[in-house]
Amino acid sequence: MKTKVILSAFAALAIAFTTPAFEVQAQSIGGGPGIAMVGSANISQLPDKAKSFIDKHFKDIAVKTCEKYFAKGKYEVELVNGIDLDFNTQGEVIEIDAPDNAVLSPTVVKEILPHKAYSRLEQSGYINSIESIEFKKGKVYEVELKIADPDTYIFSVDGTFIAIED
């Protein structure tokens, strides 16, 4: 009996360690076999534009996870420092989000935002309070701050200030 338990444990470990990390995690629709909705992706599977963005702005920070959301048409990348990056299927950045209770590095913010937007936030004293930057369909930047409401600054793609929202 003891031998069966030990053999079963070894078999379970062998299976666990031989399953590829990039295997698709399927969520079925309607209870039967279905369309793969979410899948782990190897960083090499990201579009070149996304890989270039990561290399440029987060050069020395390793990728912790990379997920492809087929239905949403996007990739979610988490770096080891907790920063989350979302990219569309063309590799364009959609959102950059700092970990909980943290803010984005002013250096990264300066590299990403247009000069006018960065200057406005710096002059307002908020450059060290930026939690996330969201790129809305190539039309505006939404910059969420770690302050009491209103906490979202909206800028045009050229950096012109548009509004402050809750």
Characteristic key phrases:
166 residues, alpha+beta, Inhibitor of vertebrate lysozyme, Ivy, 4 helices, 31% strand, globular, disordered N terminus
Describe the structure.
The protein has helices spanning 2-18, 48-57, 106-112, 115-123; strands at 24-25, 38-40, 63-69, 74-79, 84-88, 93-97, 130-136, 140-145, 152-156, 161-165. The chain is an alpha+beta fold and 166 residues long. A ten-stranded antiparallel beta sheet has the order 1-2-3-4-5-6-7-8-9-10. Residues 1-38 have low confidence and may be disordered.
Stretches where pLDDT is under 50 for at least 5 consecutive residues are 1-38
Q: What structural class do helix, strand and pairing data support? A: alpha+beta
Mean pLDDT: 80
The total beta strand count reads 10
* CATH class descriptor: Alpha Beta
**Shape estimate:** globular
What is the topological layout?
Layout: H1 2-18, E1 24-25, E2 38-40, H2 48-57, E3 63-69, E4 74-79, E5 84-88, E6 93-97, H3 106-112, H4 115-123, E7 130-136, E8 140-145, E9 152-156, E10 161-165
Antiparallel strand pairs: 1-2, 2-3, 3-4, 4-5, 5-6, 6-7, 7-8, 8-9, 9-10
Offer a concise description of the structure:
Helices cover 26% and strands 31% of the residues. By secondary structure, the chain is α+β, with helices and mostly antiparallel strands.
